[in-house]
Structure formats: structure tokens, C-alpha cells
Amino acid sequence: MKLFERKYNLIILVLALFAGITACEKDVILDLASIEGKYVIVEGNLIDDGSRQWIRLTRSSSYYDVTTGDAVQDASVLVEGNNQVWQFQELFPDSLPGYYFNSQISSALTETMYHLHIETTDNSIFFAQSELRPVPVLDSVTVKLNPFSELNFFDTTVYDLIAHFADLPGDGDHYLFNLYINNKLKTPRPTDKEPMSDVNLDEYSSYAVLNLNENDIAPGDTLILEMRSISKEKFDFYSIFFFQTDLSGNPFAGAPPANIPTNLSEGARGFFQVSAVNRKSAIFQPPQP
Amino acid sequence: MTFQTIAEQRYVLRGSVRDASNGEYLTGVNIFIPEIDGGAVTDIDGKYSIRLSEGEYTLIFSFIGYQRFERKIVMDTDKTLDVFLQNGGLRLSEVVVSAERSGRNVERAEMSTVTLSMESIRNIPAFLGEVDVLRTIQLLPGVQSAGDGNTGFFVRGGNADQNLVLLDEAVVFNASHLFNFFSVFNPDAVKDVQLFKGGIMPEYGGRLSSVLDVRMREGDMNQYKMSGGVGLISSRLTLEGPIQRGRSAFLFAGRRTYADLFLKLSSDETQRESQLYFYDFNGKMNYVLNDQNRLFFSGYYGKDVTLFSELFSFDWGNATSSMRWNRIYNDRMFSDFSIVYSNYQFNIAGDVGPASFRWESLLHNVNLKADFNYIFNDNNRFTFGLQSIYHNLDPGTIVARIEGAAAAEFDLSATNALEHGIYFNNEQSLFNDRLLLVYGLRNSVFQLIGPGNQYIFDKSNPLQWEVTDTLQLERGNFYDEFINWEPRVSFRLKINDRSSIKGSYNRMVQYIQQAQSAQSVAPYDVWYSASNNIPPQVADQVAMGYFRNFLEDRIETSVEVYYKDLQNVSDIVDNGDILGNELLEGQLRIGRGWAYGAEFLLQKQTGRLNGFLGYTWAVSKRQIDDINEGNAYFAPNDRRHDMSMSGSYDISKTWNIGMSFIYATGTAITLPVGKMFYQGAFAPIYSDRNSGRLPDYHRLDLSVTFTPNLRDRDRRRFESSWNFSLFNVYGRVNPISVSFAENSDRPGVPNSSFFYIPGPIPAITWNFNF
Predict the structure, then answer these.
(1) Which range scores top for mean pLDDT: A17-21, A60-64, B517-521, B574-578?
(2) A118 and A148 co-located in one domain
(3) Which residue, B257, B255, B230, B254, is CA-closest to B240?
């Protein structure tokens, strides 16, 4: 569970609650400097499931801008690895500007290092590299009532999704869990997903990795738990993303705010990750108390 | 007549000065002798000693808040003169920054030093009516507040952990109560407060930026007394009296807040079942064994308790105790021997069904001290001493468990260390006291002792050091040792009776420091020591000042400029994980800092209308290779302008009004300059470190004090007063912190918000004594 894997989250969250007793919060609009368009943002998460892969390029926007940032179009996007080069192309420039697709690479991905090369129309060049690491086989996925929910801690019933798998030998592996319900991704955003380090995992693990709210699921729905291999840097990326967004401005946080780390060079932001993926499905039936 | 002959005809006049109403010894009383255009000042034990030639002299004892006392004396042999000053002669200077005699600011060599009497602190409008030492300190030039809800303070560009806070010589590691809204110092138990911002005497060591020396009252030697106060959120009670009349006394003071009682009114059940309070006790006893020996025992115990329903508890507190033996050997020499203990601990615990969480931390130290004063002759006063401190910094163990999830246990290794200091200092008067030189040297030694861990890091990636080896050191073994010399020099050049120029240089070294960002208000202090990865911090400060009094010393003015060079200062690396991290050293980066500024002070100490106006212009920067791409950046405590004004006016004998106003440039913080979208969510893109600013801080506080039956004061034993205060009169939103996150009601829409203490906050307090 997120709350306990990140030891300090609990402390900070509860202290924030106390801060709420004595302090007030007021929405404000600040006169912030803007670097609108200065940075290229790369969203590249390739997996080896044989599906069409994409890499999205946008530009940074001013903080209060409600758009998702301008698309970076007409760029050259290449991924190289295992002595092969794949070109990503902007197939739908009008409906999906800034999305670059490739249909071959996914089937060809193996456990090796992959290099991303991007060149934009203004001749800016950006690099990143990511190693595809193996991922354990998910033996099964089960559902049980969240222990807090047993105590009526929440307003609604919450279930835990339990992943059963044998961890890879040795420490140093990192994973990411996603959840699909009836083939729809329920964890699209970085803070929805569950990154996991194997440092504290047993050889065989049965861990609650994600939560399900009773309002989001019905008996008979199909659950798919997805497990990806990620790098430690990507694990840190997700952890810090959580801190810099959901816990932003918390007066009990120890460290000052800072940019979320990236593996992109030349000032680009975002992250490029190549992952092995494993999925396991189950039909949801509410567990008996 | 030869010099030798003159020397032979000199005699020693010594004695003590005490408060006639309670027998307490008074520190800082001025003894002026017109015949020699000089005199002396009583020390912290109320003692004085003057060498005079044979003849007749007039002694004038004066102290703000007491009647002036004058006595003729013929010196034809060594003599002792003990004086009891009566209260109320000079009109109390309600908002004075200094309790010193008028004109003393010009005459003393000390600069960058402020003495506060509790009488002055009491009349400054207080937050929720609770008089607070640290909140008053924050008003002074050169001292910056860490913000609302925070009793932390920054001195001349230093961090909050660079202030040595002492309560009767014991280190107070965390001087805050109730998430920093109040300080640990009970105003009823405090005698006086001295803040040294520069020109720090060599008897003090271990912190870079300042020394805040708080002394507890000793208790009434003549009669039993009770005093206290009842306020909106807390009550106080103090008992004092003689143990043996005229020779020994005790004082016990306690207070407790009851803010949590208001939580019972909440509509939220969880808040109704929560607790949030603190209590503390002060105790002191002193014994006059005989004319040569006095003993002091003092202690403090305080605790904050927060209980969030039955789910979560968080408590923390300080405990200190000290024993001091004051010994007078002869007319020329006296000493103080002290044993001092202090600790700070916090416990965080949570239990929710199958989940549990524990974090217990303790740090403590034991300090043995010996200080000697030796008067060579009329022109040289020599002090020397030594001390040894045992530090035990145990950040504790964090254990988090939940059924079905991976248990997390983090054992944060403890540090044991010895810190030694040896020093001397001489105060030398030259050219008929026109020039006063004070010079000294401190040698400090810091030794880490096993058991402990020594970490070796691979530092090739500046943003992420990876530990490559951990050396486990055996119990009793010394492993890292640091030795430093710390020269301290200051001078006062008297231009005339009304003006002087002062200067100082001091080097300070700090071996233990706190892992906390400047904006943080959490009480889970994690202190760490110098090590193979963290060299000791060193500060060199030079300061110059011009002091000028007007209207027969009724108005005092001063201008001080300073430059401080900080070496080996640390800051947290981007996205550093400092909370409960055994490898904390790997999250810190070392570099340098510098601070400079000018401080202006104008004050009127006496009369119906009195107060002060202070202004500071200052810059504080840091440069650390692995932070902010190696570029210099503003320290979080950088405030370009800082102005404070405080005043008090006696409308009548029974009514007094007080005000204080503060304006400061906004805190330097890291602000977003844009945002990025990634996987359907946005995250801020930040500026260079601390290149942004919070809005400017300003606040007006008012108070009215009504003291009924004041005219009958001399005849009545029971006295009381009502204090009405209004904090943040015009409801300025001064942010504690700023959040940049998604709008909770409108997903995907960027939002920013301030956390702040709402205002205005009225309060009423009834104070009494009899």
C-alpha cells in the first residue's frame, strides 16, 4: 500500500491534518515568471506486449494555463537498440498532434538498452536511454476487503487488489502496477499508479498493490492487473511526482520543492522508459467479510 | 608619586545588588561613580567588584524599573556594600529593547547584543495573549522571523539551527510548543534574556549565528508569592518564596494550554476526539551558603501532546536541568562550576486496526563546565574556562506495519560524540577608558565515538550519492576528530559621553546541525553531527557600529553593519529525502554562504510614550556546487528589508496601550515558472532555487492593559491586570507555505493556495500576583 511503503507519507499527511486544525487555506493567483514553451516534454513508455507504441512530445506551458501544452509536431523521433532503429511517426497530426507512433518496436523489444533520439524542427536535439528489465510472472490476482474498510474507516467500501508473484532473484528491481476494469485503464495518472521497489519484498510475494472503490466496480467486471518493469530512476520519478503534486506546499515536508528528475538530456523534461509487461485478469466478486 | 605607590593605595569595593521586594539578585545593574567617570555592572549573579584609590566616592546604582540608589562611601580599606533596589523609581520602559542603564549602550564594548527584561516583553502585544520571549526576539533588528506559526528565528543570515538557545546554561534543542506557535519559555519564570548576534564571547561555542541566553528567576528570598494568569488558551501559575529567609529561595512555575477543549465544539467527530495541548514546568532553587559560595539548581520539563482521535499520537518535549556552584575566592577571582543536562525527544505512533506505525527519537547531552573570572587590575578583567559535552543523537527507529503489506523498518543509527572547549578572554581598558579592547580565543575539539556508522558514498552522480560501504565502528573507539581555533575580538572607542564606535570579529564553529528545510515547521527534529562526509560549519563575522544617544540618553540610536562568511554550510539536494533516512548525509551538499547587512535602531526608553523602531537591510546567499547548478542562490532566510516598530503609551495610571508593526520582504522560495503534462496530470516546473518570493509580510498588533487599583499598589498585596490584545488587526494573509497542486474541485486545473494563520485574533488574559 502506498501509505506505508513511503514511510514519511503517513507522517506528513497526518501532520498536514493537524495543520488544517489551526491554519487556513486560501486560493491565490501569484504573479509567476513563465517559461512557456521553453522545455520539450517527452512522454515515452514503451512496453513489449506487441501493441502499437507511442511517444508524446509537448511543450511546457505557463503554470496557470489550463491547456496541456502545445504539441511538438514534425519532429524526428527515433528509438535505437539491439542493432535496430525504429522511427516513430506523427500519424494523426490533426486529431492527435504531438503523438508519434510505431507498430513494430513492441514485438521486437528484448532485454537490452534502448536509446531515444529526438530532433525538433528548430534543430534542438534530445537524448534518453532506458534498459528493458525483466518482470516477474503474475501468478494470480485476488481481491479482499481493505483492513481499514473493515473498521468502517472510509465512507465507502474499499477493496485491496492482491498481486501474487515470485520476485526476481536479487534486489534492485522496480515495478509499476496498473489496473484495468473492463479493459479501461483506471490508473492513467502518475499518482494513480503504484510503483514498487523489491527491497522489502519476500521471495514470494502476496501484496496489496492497489485499491478499488466499490463505486468503480460491479460484480462480474473483469479486472486486469498489469505489472511493468521500470528503472530505479522511474520509480523515483513517480515517488517525487507524488510529493511535488499531491503534497505540494505541505509545511511539514522537509525538502524544498524541486523539479521532478528526468532521464532526458539537453533540458527536456518527462521520462523515457522501456518496460517488460505482465498482466493477469480476474472476475470481480465482492469478498465476503 | 610613583605608579607603585598608587597601586598600593587601592582598595576593593565589592558587593551585590538585589531586588528589595523579593531578594533576587539583579543582573546588569549599572554602578556609576562620577569621581572616576566610570564604574561597573553587576554580573549574572548580581555581583560587582571595583578597585578604587583611597578617597571619598559617590556610588549611583541604577536599573530600569527600579529606584535610583545613591550612597557616599569612604574608601580607606577593602569594603563590601550590598544594595537592595526598590521597584518603580524609573518608569518601566514597557517596550524597551534593552534593560540596560541609559547610556550603557554607548559605554559597553559589547555590540550586536540585546538584553530584554521580562517587563519589556510583557507589554508587547502577544499572539493569543500569550507573552512570548521568542516572538519578541523576532522584532529586533538583525533577527528575522521564520513566519507566522513559527517561533524559529534567523540571525544575520544564519539558519534557525545556528542559534544556541540556552535556558540556565542548558541547550534547548527545540524551543517551540504547539507546532511553533509558542516558545518553551514561560514568561513568569524568566528573569532576563540576552541575544548575542555578533561579538560573541569565547565562553560560548557550538553554533554559528547567535546565542540566546535565557536566565530563570531565582525566587523571592523574603516572602511567599503566587502569581499567574488565565487566558483564552492557557493558564499559568507560579509559586515562589524563601526556603530559609534571606539565604535561599525556590520558584516553581507551570502552565498548560487547553486549546483542545475547543475541538470538542467541532461538528467533526474525529476532531472532537482529538487533543492538542502542551504543558511545562520550571523550577529553580538557590542557596546562599555563605559570602563565598552559592548554589543554583534549575530544571525545565515540557511536553506537547497531539492525539488525533484514537488513530495517531505525536508528542515531543524538552527536559533540562542544571546545577551551578558560584564560588568567590577573593577580591580578584571567582568561578562557576556547572553540570548541565538537556534532552529532546519525540514519539510518533499510529494504530489503526491492522496497521501500526512507531517512531521514537531521543537526543540528549551532558555538559560539564568551569568558568573563571580574574581581575588582574583596574584595566584588565580576565576570564577563562573549559567545558566538555557528551552528545548522543539518536534519531531512533521507524517501524511501519500493515497486514498484507511489506513491513518497513528503518533503523537510524545513533551518533555519540564529545565536544570540548577551552577558552580565555581579556577585557582591557586603555587611554583612560576611552578605548576598550576585548580579545579572546576558544579552542574546540569534536570527537565521534563508537558505536556508530561511517558511510562511504559514490559521489559521481551529484544528484544521487550511492552508499558503497558502511563501516561499523566499535564501542568506545574514536573515529573522526575535528579541532578548530576560534578567535574573538571586539573594541569600543568612546568618542564622547554620548557616542562611540564599536567593532568586532568572531569565528564560530558548529559541529551538530539540524536536518530540516527552513520553511518546515514540524517538530520531528533530526540532528546530525560532523562526520567524514559533513565537515564542521565555520562562520567568520566582522561588524562595525556607531552608537549615539540624544536628549540626555533618553533616545538611543545605533547603526551596525556586518559581513558574515559561512564555510561548509549544508543544504538539501533537489528532491532530498531527509525524513527518517539513515543515509541522511547522502542527501546533503556542502558549500559556502555569505550574509551582509545594515541594522538601524532608534529607541526611547523612558516616559509615558516609549518604544523602538528597527530596520534591517540584509542579504543572505548560498553557493553549493551540486545545488542550483552551482549558481549562488538566496538563502530561505534572505529578507531584503525588515522593519519593526513597537510602542507603548500610558493613557493614565491604570490604562496602557501597546502596538507593534512588522514589515518584511517575502521569504525567498522556489516557485513554479511553468508546468508539464505527463500521463494526464501536470506537475510544476520550478525556477532556480529560492529565486521567487512569497508576498511581503506585514502585520499590526494592538493591546490594551488595564491595571485596576494601581494607585493602591503600595498598600495592597493582591494585584491584577487585564490584557486585551488583537493579533493581526487588519487580517493580513501572511502565508506559512504555498501549495501548487491541482484544483481539488476541478481536476486538471492548476491551482495555488496559501496556508496562513487567520486574523484578526482577539485575546484576553487576566494576570494576578499576591
Answers:
(1) A60-64
(2) no
(3) B254
